Amino acid sequence: MTRSLVFLPGWCLGRGPLLTTVRALEGQFIDLPGYLDSPRCADFTDAVEQIGARLPKNCVLAGWSIGAQLALAIAARFPDKVGKLLLVAGTASFVQREGWPHAMPESTLAEFTAAMIADPAGMLPRFVGGFNRGDDYAKEVTRRILETADPLPPPEVLADGLAWLRDVDLRTAAPLVKAPTLLIHGAADPLMPLAAAEALATLIPGAQVHSMRGCAHAPFLSQPEEFLAQARAFIA
To answer: Which entry of 38, 65, 93, 222 is annotated as an active-site residue?
Structure first.
């Protein structure tokens, strides 16, 4: 690879499900705030500043799910740091807002938040199984994610991320991105609909979308060969 690749993991699961993929791409991780040894940071904007300050110049910045939202915000805030932007299962807003129907109702997220904070370990299989619905390899992908997920962070850290999903709207940040951008998205993603990626791509100058048929929210595990081919071609 000619550029440094930095990958931001998704909410709750950490780097484990992405480990094989990021190794294959010769990349490195920056963990979400509060995960593993990373200090907690409850404010999304502060997290953007802290992670952006750690990036090498002209890197490829990638993120999955909430990590993609962070990566998008960082690319808008630090154009000198992000040479290319790779968003996996990315969206501008996780919940429905005026003019943004491609998302979960806020009431549904509120119900999930209450259940997840009350019993994180018990809700984890339901969460992972739910976002793999519609995937051609749903059972296998769900099993692998649950087997490889990092230890759960503290409940307050989970709550921070859920608050970001509720509050963050990046539609005004997206047009500020200067880096070439690729969105890789499962065509059957029930958590972040493909329409969300397509709508987001129209807001980022020159962005392209690669949709993966038969994939849900974790296309890098469902169809790894196609995912890696697309990522490598983009990075190179």
So the answer is: 65
